Amino acid sequence: MRPSYLGKILLHWCDSCHVPVLSARCGCGQTARPVPVTPPGDARPAFPSDIGFVNRIYREYFGNDLIPPGHLALMSKVPEIDRMEEIVLGGGVVGAVRFDPIKKHWEPLPRPGSTKYLKPRLRYVIIDPGAVPSVMNEGASVLAPGLLEIEESVSPGDEVYILEPSGTCVGVGRAKVSAADARTMKRGAVVRTRKNIPSHPVPGEATWDDAIVANREILARVEAEAKAFVQKTVADNPLPVTVSYSGGKDSLATFLLVRGAVGNVPLIFIDTGIEFPETYANVIEVARRYGTDVITITGKVGFWDAFDRMGPPAMNARWCCKVCKLGPLKQAISERYGECLSFIGQRRYESVTRRNTPRVWRNSFVPNQLSASPIQNWTALHVWLYLFREKAPYNVLYEKQCDRIGCYLCPSTDPGAYDHIRVNHRDLCERWESRLREWARNNGMTDEWVDSGQWREKSGGHA
Ligand SMILES: [Zn+2]
Predict the structure, then answer these.
(1) Does the domain at residues 215-457 carry the CATH identifier 3.90.650.10?
(2) Distance 18 CA to ligand 1 centre (A)
(3) What is the helix (H) or strand (E) element at residue 260, kind and residue range?
(4) From ligand 1's centre to the CA of 342, what distance in Å?
(5) If I label 306, which of 172, 315, 447, 460 is the partner at 20 to 30 A Cα–Cα?
(6) How many CB atoms lie within 10 A of CB 233?
(7) Which residues surround ligand 1, an ion (CB under 5 A)?
């Protein structure tokens, strides 16, 4: 899939403060340089669990950690079929991690700039200085005659660092042969070099509080704009005002903005019955902290009853949203308000389908709800810096490598994200998988259809 530009990439970096900046000028007065992330560039802070996870992958593979303590790191999802996230350090893209859904494991994809942080002890080759210009400038493969040394654990298909004898990294690539075979070769390619967009990290320590200071004016500006939008939308539409609250960061930021603009309003929380335990806890905590009412909506037909009749939902047949969310929502609004205005934390940087949605809209399945998004043009980092500044009680799932909060069995969850969910919520996942297997057996589908995640792709014809 080609990368899509969902909006201008706003992510910059200040080399004096060593923090991300959401404009071309840092709060310290210095110019901030653009970070060459792959679009859409909706980067988020790496939490300690993300850092531990990335370091574990790089340490196993290359013998050392990638992200040093005290440095701010960001993760930015690359739109691909499988889950891949770029890692930003020092304002450069230093590498990525990618989930292989067939082998069900994560692999590192390093970039040359990462050697400012990581000195590889495993999976590297050292090449003759004479071969450096063609590898470095033209992306030529490393050929057997130019090879001086190959670390012994290298196997075909491995990601490897390409170093000069001094230890300087001149490229990265994929090994074509094993270390043992490479040592006996007289000719042929040993490593296929990968071309990357140049990226030059500048290491330096900082804290998220430093990042808030550096982005103070930018945050104040987008906050004021969002609150003015809320006030105008409320003035233009004399309806009862609510906030759609999912337990996610975007809806929390939306609630704080609405509360700041027009005072406390009730939260609408749709309980599908298949939310994470952390999400239920977060709804209670937010309501208590801010003294606001929660209207909890549960449908008459629960997910499991509907599952028995319709089979598993799929990406192209997500009946669950209509049955467990939109239908009950429409009915509850009708009974309580007739019609209402709901502020929703929808952002265009989230996905291609949301790129061109208007800022005020009506969902055709819930015509009695006028929806509006104050944070339509915010990136994930705007939201996070704002929540950090406000010391807001965000859902602890974000600290468990879950960056999209929804139902735990959503078919739109990519296999890599589901892998993280499985680590934290084995019980919920096993219950779901056993129901899936049972359904598969009764409907002529194989266990493979369940285990490979094919059930997500397409409905079994029962929707
Ligand atoms: Zn600065």
Answers:
(1) no
(2) 7
(3) helix 249-262
(4) 37
(5) 447
(6) 22
(7) 14, 16-17, 26, 28, 30
Q: What is the pLDDT of residues 304-353, one digit of tens each?
A: 888 888 888 888 778 888 888 888 999 999 999 999 999 999 999 887 66
Rounded to the nearest angstrom, the distance between the alpha carbon of 45 and the centre of ligand 1 is: 18
| Arithmetic mean of pLDDT, 214-229 | 98
Mean pLDDT, to the nearest integer, of 26-43?
93
Least trusted range by pLDDT, from 114-123, 126-135, 363-372, 402-411:
402-411
- Which class for 34: exposed (0-12), middle (13-18), buried (19 or more C-beta within 10 A)? middle
Backbone angles phi, psi at 269, to 5 degrees: -120, 120
Bridge partners, 343 (sequence order): 243, 372
78 CA distance to ligand 1 middle (Å): 27
Q: What is the DSSP string of 53-101?
A: HHHHHHHHHHSS-SS-TT--EEEEE--SSS-EEEEEETTEEEEEEEEET
Instruction: Report pLDDT digits (tens) over 411-460.
Output: 888 778 888 888 888 998 898 888 889 988 998 888 888 888 888 886 55
Cα(112)–Cα(79) distance, integer angstroms? 22
Distance CA 361, CA 404 (A): 23
Cα separation, 399 vs 48, whole angstroms: 7
* Phi, psi angles (nearest 5°) of residue 201: -70, 150
pTM of the full predicted structure? Answer: 0.92
Question: If phi over 0 gives left and psi between -120 and 50 gives alpha, with beta otherwise, what is residue 158?
Answer: beta
Mean pLDDT of the residues in the chain = 91
Residue 7 is encoded by which pair of tokens? 């909006």
Q: Which two tokens stand for residue 111?
A: 């970039």
C-alpha of residue 210 to centroid of ligand 1, in Å:
9
φ, ψ (nearest 5 deg) of residue 220:
-60, -40
- The amino acid present at 32, given as its one-letter code, is A
Look up the CATH architecture of domain 114-195: Roll (2.30)
| DSSP state for residue 443 in the 8-state scheme | T
Ranges in the chain annotated CATH 3.40.50.620: 215-457
Burial (CB < 10 A; 0-12, 13-18, 19+), residue 263, is exposed
